[in-house]
Structure formats: C-alpha cells, structure tokens
Please model this.
Amino acid sequence: MLNVLLLVLLLWPAAVFAQQTERVAIFVVTFPDRPPPSEPIGVVAARAFGPTTPDGVFSLKSYWEAASYGHLKVTGTVYGYLPINLPSTCPGSPLYPEWTQAATIEAAKRGYSPANFTKRIFVWQNVICGNSFTVGVGGTVMFLQSGFSVDIASHEFGHALGLSHSHLAVCVDAAGRPATFGIDLTDATAASGQGPGRCTESDSGDPFGIMGGRFTGPLNAAHRSFLGWMTGRLQTITSDGDFAIAPLQLQTAPLPQALAVLPPGQTSPGEAYYVEYRPGATGGQFDPAASGVVVHTRSGSSTEVYDADLANPEVYHLGLQLGVPVHHPVKGFTLTLLSMVSNRAVVRVTFERRSLGN
Ligand SMILES: [Zn+2]
Model:
C-alpha cells in the first residue's frame, strides 16, 4: 500500500496542472472637472471579476479563465470611484505619473497595498488621452481611457500576459491572384515582395480574437499554445491524413482542439500552421468572424490569420470553405475542410512529395 502511494506521489509531478494566478488592482479615477460616473462601481466590478457581466458578455476574469482552460486564475479588487484633485487636462508624460500617484494614495486609504497584486489597471473615467495601452508586452501596468470597457481591458490584459497582436495576412500568388498563402512570411526576401507571390499584413487585423482589432472572440490556438495552455489539446501533424477537431472554446473535449501542421523539415512549434474550429457563439454582429475553421501562424508572441475564403472578399469571412483545397506553394502542403458539424470539423492534410536530390 505504501509502495503504491509512493509511486503515485513520484508520478504526480509530471501530471501537475500548471496554474498561474494574476491578482489585479483596478483603480477607477474621477476628475473634479468631468461629469460624475453614471454607473455604480459594482457594475465595473462585475465587468472585471464577475462570472458574467451586466452586459451579458464575458468579464475580464471569465474571458481569461476560459481562454486558458483554467490554467490562469484571475482575482482582484476594484478601487473606486477614486476622486483625485487634479484637472483632467491630458498630461505631457505618457505614463501619467501624477494621476497614478494620486489614485494610488486614494486607493491606499481604502486598503490598497501593492504587495497584494501582480497587475494594475488605471482607468480614467470620462477622460480620453490617446489610446488605452499596456506598458510593454508582458508589463504589469495598463491604462484604460474613458471608463472600464471589458473588451479593451481583456485585450490589454493579453498584452500584460505577454501577447502581441494578431495580424491579418492578405496574400497573392506568383501571378498576382488572391491566395490564402502567398509566400513564407518568415522569409525576408519573399516578404519584401521579391519572391513569388506576396502577403500584406494588417497589424491588428485578425477579426477572430481578442488580440485582433475587434476586441472580441476566442483567443486563437496559436496564442494559447504560446502561453502553454494547449497541452493535451493540440495534435501535431507531420504526415497525410484526415483529422477531426473539436471546437476550440470547449473546456473539455473528446478530440484535439487544434492541429499544428508542421511542413516538411520544420520542427519548432513556432513554425506550425495552427488549424482551429470555432463555431459561432457570441460573435454578435461579427458572427461570420466567430465561425468556421481558420488557420493562424505564430511569430514570437504575434500571430497571423490567413484568408482562406477567397470567394468572399469581405474580411469577416476567412474560414476554410467545405471541399475547397487550400495549397501553400512554398511550404508544400494542402488543407481541405471535409466536414463541419456543431461539435467537430474534419480537415484533410496532404504534404507534397518533394525530391531531396535536386
Ligand atoms: Zn493592442
């Protein structure tokens, strides 16, 4: 009995579920020369840390806990409203030293202690001084303009976790026709437009996820993988076959939830083409963006989504079309969506047979 217990204890560390906790202090700051806030502070607290929000969408907490499949726990306190006795004239310094200091002093009167938190979000109520931003990718301080908006807060929180933007790549082939994959974007010569075909990218153009420009939709599999959250959910593909995947958003799934297609000769997860299935659920007006099977790559902490629906030039249609093969002319593989029902999609992957002798 003792031996069995010992064996279990020895084996257990390999299976430990890596969990990270972020404790977030949110300072909601009001100014004497601006209109008072129209909502009770409890509404802000619900948008930040509630199970769902009064708006019927995700909270900062629920978004990231779901995106991480429970690897990340988000807790925190909202301090506010915090009246500071300074004019709302936008300061010259981009880091708002006087405003943050005054807000911190006000919060300390209400029990705030820096040692209790890993991240801080300063929210300027009814004031807009430029963009909301995070101080550096992986930084611990975020600034939100004009109140606490859960979608922008969730985007900035992604930066604070170490993520850069999700780009959109629009490509043409060697003949100049629209193509899903024009070139190898990691090839500097080709990317400069000198290779066969080319792609142009828009910085936060991915409409499929929080790190793109729509500030909505599930975090893509490439970003989840970068943060270490796809363990046991990602199937690496290096040979031909038909592969079934379950929706990326499911917390538990009987199938892999993304494919990492590795072209011949490439071994690093960073060189994979990530194929994921995201049935539309909460996309609202962006429903087409929230639906379908899409392909991303990752470069460092950035990701890139490719337009695989060339028949629909409108950018919110990017998903693989049923039965239409999509070929990568440089990497030498083809993806074909064979079927798509509510709880699974099946994708055929074929690799070109290339002679190594020439
Ligand atoms: Zn951003």
